[in-house]
From TrEMBL:
Keyword NADP belongs to the record: no
Major location category of this protein: membrane
Pathway involvement of the protein, from the record: Cell wall biogenesis; lipoteichoic acid biosynthesis
UniProt organism field: Roseburia porci
Membrane topology label: Multi-pass membrane protein
Transmembrane residue ranges: 24-50, 70-89, 101-123, 143-165, 177-198
GO molecular function, one term: hydrolase activity
Region (Disordered): 677-714
Name recorded for this polypeptide: Sulfatase-like hydrolase/transferase
InterPro entries recorded: Alkaline_phosphatase_core_sf (IPR017850), OpgB/LTA_synthase_biosynth (IPR050448), Sulfatase_N (IPR000917)
Amino acid sequence: MKINLSTIKQKFFTKKEKQHSEKYLQTIAFLNKYSLVFHALLSCGLIFVIEWVSRRSFISACTFVSAHTLAYFYNAFIIFASLTLVYLFRRRAFFRLFISAFWLILGIINGCILSNRVTPFGYTDLKCISDLLTMTNTNYFTATQATFVVIGAAIFLGFCVIFFIKGPRFTGKIRRIVVPASVVAVLFVAVPTVTSVAQSTNVVATYFSNIAQGYENYGFVYSFSSSVVDRGMKKPSDYSEAKIDSIEETVNSEKKETSINKDREPNLIVVLLESFCDPDEINFLNVTGDPIPTFHSLEQNYSTGYLTVPVVGAGTSNTEFEVLTGMSLQYFGTGEYPHKTILKEVDRCESIASDLSPLGYGTHVVHNNGGNFYSRANAFQKMGFDTFTSKEMMDIQNYTPNGNWATDDILVGETIKAMDSTPNQSDMVYTITVSSHGDYPTTKLIENPVYATSGAADEGAENAWDYYVHQLHEVDNFMANLIDEVSKRDEDTMIVFFGDHLPTMGLTDDDMKSGDIYKTKYVTWNNFGLEKQDADLYSYQLLAHVTDQLGIHEGTIFNYHQTQMNSEDYYDGFENLQYDLLYGSRYSYHGEDLYPASDLVMGIDDIVIDSMHESIDGSELIIEGSGFTKWSRVYVNDEKVSTTYSSGNCLTIDTSGLKDGDTIVVNQVGSSNTIFRSSNEMTYEKAETTENTEGTESTETSGSENQDSDSDAQ
């Protein structure tokens, strides 16, 4: 069948003048006359639908309207204000559709996100899209879901184009001064005024101590809008050089001097346990046996406590930020990820690494996930770490039962390797696990589980809990193995294990023995007789507490926590210091170049090409060396080529495009084609065919080395 493009264009993309009935014209005139009333009703309807979709419950949406009526109408007012933009155009129906669809799509996205995690959709999630797209081996989205999204978006955009061309137009008079002035007044006078009144009367809040609860109480439209407008830190009203000097004077008058033995400084290993939760803390969950005996033994014998973290179910980097820097997310905007925002803007960020480096510590990060995830390579550089061994630098072979994540056993050897890389230094190693990360399959993957669960709502939930508890046991084994390996070293060492947030399993405050879904636990271990000192802490206080026990009293923020945690002005001074270091004039440093960013090196081992030779049939170039991983890519003349990983010592590429004199380099490549580390450079020389003694043909390729040292890229 022949497609007539001119017919399609005439039918769908050509505006035809059409004679409308008298009734139609009267209806349009009525709607234009009372359009503001129509917009008000539309806004209320949209808010209800958005809340229904976001909460995934009609009853819950009705409860929001009845329990938070004023917040409901305030959210509707925000949409109503945005709809006033249609009066600037003649194609009012089109822009009315577009604005309504914009808010509805945001609500749908929030509903989809909340089906997989506890933290609602915020503006800074848009900065994590590149991270999400790298997670192609997870169940956050399937190929079918992605296809439906693409098809749906294409259909909607196509409809918008057709509707823009063929849809109705306003034919009345547009007042060129009054209408724009009125729209500006609504958007820039009425909205701020109403918002201020709503906040001052507690209809909505300016700060969400619990983001999920904030969205629940104050509505998605306001909460999301707040995450767009309210970013970064606001300047404290009393911030000044004199204020910072006063805080510093108080801290310096009370702080202790670092008292560790210079010849035997203790190593410090800090381990983030992904989505770790003690099953005993969950009221309804029953487990046969103890899946985490190592954790419980540490809890009984070494310092431990609850750890209040800033996130639930997702947002690992926010807990990480608090732990490593001692700074608090409470002073940032709604749903912010400092790794993705301020740490991309500043030239440095004081942390445990930059505080310990002047004492002679080597500082390292080890993580069996992507180096660019949460923009970590950049964040750790700004924090002053020396090395970062991400999955791209690891020869990972084993994955979790659902195939999503690398198992954590590889982290034991990589942590020890990082410590071995600085034989004449003490070390601070920050190790990040991943194998207990969600999602947790509702289909049965663990047959005849050793640690079976009961008490979950249904069979699917029970399967998910069985899987999660199985992974907790594997994490516990990793903890035991790490302690065992560290125990073999004749070095004083302290290990701190902490959970970054609870798992995405729909837990509520009532489900937890702590009564708070923002509480995880931390446990410690040491081999030099530290006294057990239990304390419930916030995540931003954890390392100040630990270093205080070790006799280390360094750093602007950590010294502040160690000396002022119990003072009446604790949070006022805390907010001022944090603002000073991240957004202010750094009065704390008194003009000195303190705590600079590091020249972060990715990985510990060199990437080395030892030799190259062609396969028997000459179709492949076999590259032999060391340090290769599944993320090794061969570059020919600085162009990436298709690479086959055979082992940690062997890669192969196609020879069809090679010619004499081509340069060969192996790069360790992260997401967005980031080159983390490079090998030495070799020159390809075409092989000659020779006859061997067996009468078969073999090929020999010579490769001359151009560069001995490897280069590091961030």
